[in-house]
Amino acid sequence: MNALALLAFAALAAAPSPKHKESPLFLAPKVGFIKTTTSLDGDLYLAGEVGYLTPLLQRRLAVVLEVNYHRPSTTGTLRGPQLDNLGQPVERPYTLAAREVAIQLSAVLRFPRGLGPLTPYVGAGPGLYLHRATVEVYDSTASESGGGFGFQALAGAELPLGPGGAFLEAHYHFAPVNFLTTGDVNTGGVLAAVGYRLRL
């Protein structure tokens, strides 16, 4: 009887333990640099995402919601209608800043271990882009606000690290805006960002 008990205990000890099931939910902070398609200067890009890895396509398709923020600006000089003592137009400096908050929903296709230890991925989807343009000139400030729909495309690669993965990704954003201060332009652009994607 003791021998049977010892054999049963040994079999249980040798049996592989069940694998921990990875959660389909994940979140990630990210930081990067964005350059719009306009004459605005490049700017710091801050974002956070939450995603769900669906069972579709052998758990390769994820749905990701991202919220991001940036505020590029530019400075220059305007010639006003006033003349100085020499009869020349008075030049005044100006600053134009365009704040953008975007809420983006993307379908992301992942290729686990597609490049050795790296998991490359690509994605695209619609976005709601909220804009506020502010101009400071001639000792006065004027602002315009509005929002509109656009889209984004992205590609990146993730490296497993701890309970999640570090990643590097690139985006293209199309975010049309039509203000008096900006004209009809695309304030989207290209960006590169790094972050850490944590499995919940």
UniProtKB/TrEMBL annotation:
Lineage top rank: taxon: Bacteria
Coiled-coil segments: none
Classification via SUPFAM superfamilies: OMPA-like (SSF56925)
Domain Outer membrane protein beta-barrel: 5-197
Pfam (any one): OMP_b-brl
UniProt xrefs under InterPro entries: Beta-barrel_OMP, OMP/PagP_B-barrel
Keyword annotations of the record: Signal
Leader sequence residues: none
UniProt protein name: Outer membrane protein beta-barrel domain-containing protein
